[in-house]
Design brief:
One of its GO terms (cellular component) is nuclear inner membrane. It comes from Furnarius figulus. One of its GO terms (biological process) is nuclear membrane organization. The chain has 2 domains: 115 residues, no CATH class; 189 residues, no CATH class. Helix 1 runs parallel beside helix 5, helix 5 runs antiparallel to helix 6 and helix 5 packs antiparallel against helix 7. 35% of the residues lie in helices and 30% in strands. The two termini are 59 Å apart. The longest helix has 46 residues. It is an alpha+beta fold.
Amino acid sequence: FRQFSDSGSRKEHVKITSESKPGFLERLSETSGGMLMGLVTFLLAFYLLFTNEGRALRTAKSLDEGLSLVVPLESIHSISQQNEGRLVHLSGALSTSKPLFDPSYGLSIHAVKLKRNVEMYQWVEYEDSKEYEENGEIKKETKYSYNTEWKSEVVNSRNFDREIGHKNPSAMAVESFTAVSPNVQVGSFVLTKGLVDKIDDFKRLSLSNLEDPHADVTRGGDYFYHSENPRRPEVGDLRVSFFYAGLSGDDPHLGSADKVTVIARQRGDQLVPYHTKSGDILEILHPGDLSVEEVFQKEHQSNTMKTWALRAAGWLSMFVGISLMTQIFYTLVDWFPVVRDLVNIGLKAFAFCVATSLSLLTISVGWLFYRPLWALLIGLLSVVPIVVAKTRVPPKKQQ
């Protein structure tokens, strides 16, 4: 059943739902479903950890190969046939053939990308729930609160617990979009789509030098408002802001064109991906004027960060999988509070030790084909958590 309690304001209300405490067989059935999900998560962790090591080592070897082969260009304004098909390094200012326009707001800019960001003033629902047991039933108390905010995505008010008084429009009258220049160059060299995609350092475009484009649009700060009163917006009002990435021409208000550093294969006047012997692709772009060593150092750092992030994700998946698969032991004793708490602590410690050992073992297998000595050392290290756990168990007393 449901019990409603209003706080006196339409912006907040509380709902209490209750259900009978599940029986032993019902909890056992739910635990069985969790065990199946845990098994899938457990197996996924093996795949993630193993493939991640191969990817990390392959990327590292490809970067080392690229560093040994790359040729710095003497000039970005002339194309040398001697470098055809080779991995080259160049730095220079971005340039585009035509400016990017947004005719709806009378705006143009020489840049690689121009993004129009549209936000609508909408109702947003927030939930705050807590569960407790009362009279043999499990009750859930949920507080729903509503606030009006600017959101770039349409919030579906039909999913609200109480839509009356908090209804949002179903669509925006003006859509967001990102325009990309069809021709981007550094000197005489044309960047491919893969390199252009890496230019994503967006900066807000100041609208202080622009006029109001229409009678029903008002400029306020760095926004165009579709609102009768921007200081007191109503639900359904819009505001529009603009961002740009890769300034490609000198602008009196924005400054000089952005410089980038590129490492890619020269093919005519184009810079295309370079396929390494390790099976990886080198197609690198960084903002600024960087040396060859600085670029590859950044790439190695990025590879290391990604490797450790995936290792942590793999270990967490394995820990969660083991915890779900062993949850049945907790369910069998959850009638006894003291025993239940001890079993819960033991299961978490077991999951931690096994997940750590199996993660290290999987990582060592992933290194076996590339660095056998390191693989052996990591394999030996995987035994440490289990040995430590066994030494914590007190020996049985002599009879």
